[in-house]
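Ticket #4471: structure export looks truncated?
Reporter: QA, pipeline team
Priority: medium

Steps to reproduce: submit the single chain below to the structure queue and open the exported record.
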Amino acid sequence: SHKVICSTWDNHSVMREENVTGYSKYSEIFERHHIYFNGIGHLDLGVGTQNYKIAVSHFFRGYSLENPCHGGMRYMRRMAQDREIAMAGDSHNPGLIKYIDGDRVRCVVNSGTAQTNSGYAKRFFSLHTSSAFPVIKLDPHTHEFTPYWNLQEALK
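Actual output as written to the record:
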């Protein structure tokens, strides 16, 4: 847990448990060890001399069949103009984008899944899922962030 910055709710454990019992033991466990968001979370993360404004959630509304990052892009444009990075993963379809929105540089990452043979993913998303978990390098000296497909790519 010392390497985890924060976590968010999910529909596999937290939401299913809340639907049956009215609360979630999973969320209570997550809260004990790090920052936990039981919905969309806004995190201001200090790295060196820089402060990065991040939005995190299990998903952002506005899913697109062609662009797994669309929900995060839509959320920042319509609901969270002060955020510059959005992170989600519900669709099990990895994606990353760094783009200009007005006068701002923004980035969205959507993670894949460790469950590459998931019936859920095959029913709702695709027969082909990916275990890619994009990461974002946050520079501690200049206000720059760079998305990578995975940690190995970032470390190169």
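Status: closed, not a bug. The export was complete when the record was re-opened. Leaving a note from the reviewer for reference: The first strand starts at residue 6 and ends at 8.
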